[in-house]
Protein: TonB-dependent siderophore receptor
Organism: Chitinophaga parva
Amino acid sequence: MKPFIPCALGLAITATSLPAQAQEQKRSITDTTHQLQEVQVITGYNKFAKKESNNVARLPLRNIENPQVYNVVPHEILTDQAIVTYNDVLKNVSGVSQGLVNGSNTFFLRGFLTSSLLRNDMQQQIGNSIEVQGIERIEVLKGPSATLFGSTLTSFGGLVNRITKKPYETFGGEISVTRGGFDLSRITADVNTPLNANKGLCLRTNLAYHDEGSFQDAGFTRRFLFAPSFMYKVSNRLTLLLDAEVYAQKANDFNRLFPQASLTLDNPRKLGIDYRRSYSSNDLYETKPSVTVYGQAKYKLSDQWTSTTAFSQTNATVDGYWSWNQIVRDSMVTRNPGHEHTIQGSTEVQQNFNGDFLLGNMRNRVVLGLDYLTTATRSAASTVNGFDNVLIHQKDPRYYELTPARLDAALAKVPLVPAWTGRDIYSAYISDVLNITPALSVMASIRVDHFVSRGTSTADTTYGRYHQTAPSPKLGLVYQVIRDRLSVFGNYMNGFQNNSPARQPNGQYTDFTPSHANQWEAGIKADLLAGRLTGTASYYQINVNDVIHTAFDGSGFSVQDGSQLSKGFEAEVIANPAAGLNIIAGYSHNDIYTRNQDATGQHDGLRQWNGPAETANLWISYHLRSTALKGLQLGIGGNYNGKAYITQTHTQGSFYIPEYTVLNASLGYERNAWRVVCKLDNLTNEVYWGSYISQMMPRRFSTTVAVKF
């Protein structure tokens, strides 16, 4: 049987990559366009368990032999769940909860706030929300990952890496239309075509237009994506890739409420907030255009060595009105609107050399890398603190007085200070995996990172210039108890955060070292029943040291002896127990708290704004295979988030987001050339809140119709 081979960097789908049952169903597959579409509707294999990736370790390392825990959300899940927003993608990852909701790309990983800043292993630092149309899969790496990816694009909890769709060698594509509640209207296109006769040059273009209203009295999001990708296979040794992502967004999606210390009630349910109120206006919005260009040259130096040179350049702008609102005294909302204009440019250049060779009888895989990242930001922003106070529980004429005209008049009285900041990061790293025996492998890695802050410049001064050098080691051990089926692993991983000098009360500046996070983790990984059952379970502990805080002696000096501890358990299971039945499930428990950072002791040892301690996710998908109903698809699942503290003290009370369970369901029908999916989000119409006091979407019905060619 002739395999389908995507152009250059794609993965080949062959008969041997599927379990025997799926192979039997697809023996007649060839590379014709019609039959390639048949590959997309195979139901007799574990389609959610696409864990293998060369991006995670920057090495050809299978999940079963990788000492790091990671999750992959493949495109099949996005299609199966008819996902239209980026936040919904991460709901399929164990231990992940949303950070700032409503247009934000932030999440909690192992208790640490993590922004989604990586695209194809490199920077994409943007202020807008992320469009899912161009995504092939999302990879979520758990734990401090600075050794290979640096500190600027990661957090102590991990990282989120988006892998985009790549061209392949045959003509094909899909066009879809989605309509749904709250004025959801969406159209997407994915078109791939070879550009020359021998198929060495390919073009794949993804387009999306998304227009969505809100269940509240104000709020909307409009975004447009144009993402072309060129692949040129120059020879059997050299492959070139060039792609771009042109994005435009206009939105009022920042409607959030922040609790203050004056509250006597301890959760938003008791406050009795009318969740239909946004405390904003559709006349107040931000525009967030961005352009990212990515290029890669991959050259096979020999049978053992490969060179990969890549660059990524992003220009992003944020311009317009925004507001953050405070709840005070249990009965009032203080609105604090403002205006900002920010332009950020980021460029990253990276060179990797990959080797795969024998040392005696032992297989050795190694990556040697150099990385340069530079970022510059120009901004001008002002805020009107305490613009007005609006009553929560009754009508208030002031509610409608937040208009552009009134806000502009108030902003004219607030000083506007333009500022410029810049930084450069120079890095070198090496990671080596040595198979001491076919079952036992050891990973040893290290990164040296030199951070240069060019400071912050205003009209009359420049401050904050400094530089720091930080090493970041990583160690891992994997033993395959059953070769290629069951392994036990352990890892030590490191992350760091650069710290600028602090101006002390006496006028002197104190230099600080970077704060470091050190993780120890142990667990098991399984790939059983010919790939039909895969899973990971692990326990981890992350110690953060050298945290800066205010001295306890009342002097006001900044000192660097604080710490933080995050520990917990995570598990994920992906199963295909019967033909057509696919399940993904996850559970996590995380305990995180600060130590030696609070002079009064009110917060030390207690969870603060770190997301919920417990989360669980489940999705069950069944594709009927009988003759009469072949092509019918059913899906159901959801998420559980435990109680999430915003603030918590030993004696002065707390404020938290109540636990919740949200269910979603889908019903679809698919044939070779088309697909229809009906989805019901928030099946039970659960009233729940996201991070801080952000009322989440009630029940919504939507329908997607897709045509494939």
User: Anything to note?
Assistant: The CA atoms of residues 344 and 377 lie 4 Å apart. The chain has seven helices and 39 strands. The chain has two domains: 63-164, 172-708.
